[in-house]
Write a structure and sequence with these properties.
437 residues, ten-stranded mixed beta sheet, alpha+beta, elongated, 19% helix, 9 helices
Amino acid sequence: MAVPYVAVDDTDSVKGMCTTFLLTEIIRSFPDLDVLGYPRLVRLNPNIPWKTRGNAALYVRLGKGYGKRFKIGDIVNKSVFGYSQGREAGSVDDVFSTVKSLVEKMAVFEDEKTNPGFAVTEKKPSESFYWKAVRRPVNLEDAVLELEKSGAIYGGFKNKRGLIGSAAALAWRPKKRTYELIAYRDRKRWGSPRKIDEKSVMDMDHEFPETFDNYDYGNGYMAITPHTPCPILYGIRSVSPDVLERARRTVRGEGAERWMIFMSNQGTDDNIVKRKISEIKGYESVAVRGKVMERPHTIDGGHVIFGISDGTGSIDCAAYEPTKEFRNIVRSLIPGDIVEVRGGVREGPFTINLEKMRIIKLEKNIVKLHNPKCPKCGKRMKSTGRGGYYRCRDCGTKVRGREETATIKRDIEEKWYEVPVCARRHLAMPLKLMPLL
């Protein structure tokens, strides 16, 4: 048979399920086919208001004897993904029929935001569609057009918005990539508190420096575990797939029922576009340079706000309360500082939600102190208002002088700063990855 790409999106919900888990079930349904390359976990525009959770779409390539072949056990544990279950696919139509049945069985249809879409194709859509979907809102009609141009068989349920993610995932050609091992819970544990040994996560984080965003030491937060009643036990992200299985064995706690390694665009900043302020649109993720126009101020809820300008316009930037200690860096800015800010754009209020910030140039903080002291009696003198002369109000001494000034030492530096791990978004590139990707 031909080599089909299978893509699926928008089957999960904050109430449960996970589209990555559904992909494992799709693979299990075709035990006589090989997984060709790593399954792909593709994050799309994180600012879209109608997303379910992490706005991830999935695809996998299935087949036999084409190019470099990955055995199931190279990517997932053989005890679950053995060759004893399911049936052999007879055609692309047969693969599509099986995928449709699984989506219909497992998607969380009661959630109004869950609108599944899925596609099977022998040809990938245009790469340009991925860049559209990861950087701005796109409509369903454009996604359907891309799928039809590639000859895909596609379908969906409800409003079928998941076809956008399916088409975009298929269109991804990795320029930068990371990997994630996702471990899944036994079904009888779904919805119950996860049991993961916190110290083992910290040990794993130290032992495998190739991994990232595992643990937030400043806030005592395990970032590998989700906080919804979904099937995922944990996810370990890395710049290299080679360490992930060993890292998994380091984590102690409840046992995983299955696991899979995905290639992903997580941590790549693929969603970021460079903009002048006048060009910024809502729901984008932007990189903007500008001059700080005002001292940052804290509003109700602990959010810190300041404005920047680049000559084409001005815009507010916000370090929201979940960014924790990052707000202290923001509070240290003063008017005149030159910064580059990165983050998602909210439409209401029109604001950049900060994810990273580079201080390019610090303004010298020259502070006027006060009038000079009288050389005879030591009292503060009063300006006469003419010619730079000051007069002592007590003894009448008159001298020529100037106001005393001082430079206050800044407690921030000209470098990059980022939000803590507990506030990090999936696509945001951690500073530790900047030299690597």
